[in-house]
Amino acid sequence: MSSLVTHPRVATFIYSRSKVRDRKLLARAEALSFKLKRVDIETEKLTTTHFASLANAMDVDINSLIDSRIVQGHEISDTEGALKLINKNPELLKTPIVVTAECVTYIGDFGDLARLEKPLHASNQSLS
Fold this sequence. Notes:
Helix content: 25-40%
Largest sheet: 4 strands, mixed
Shape: globular
Number of domains: 1
Protein name: Arsenate reductase
Distance between the termini: 25 Å
Number of helices: 4
CATH architecture: 3-Layer(aba) Sandwich
CATH class: Alpha Beta
Strand content: 5-15%
Strand order of the largest sheet: 2-1-3-4
Structural class: alpha+beta
């Protein structure tokens, strides 16, 4: 995960530019009071190690990172298969995901961003 965490005062925002909801949440995140590093999964290649690290840091099974709205009716039973599927088809990754020095979080709505802003804002002020 260290490769996605650039600095304690910077959050890494992993998103897909083809998803309207991701773009809206990115715009809202950029308006908040913390710095963002953007990672568009359609232009920047993440590795299976990145995906495994995200799942591990979120304390979820790798299958939980696959967007069920896109892959309906298909169940991938083994971890290696799920990692390969996400790696070859990054649009299947459930996004957006925010990576900070303290946590990795799936952002489902604007409220998730607001909850994330408080600890990041506090760490930015303490490091100033």
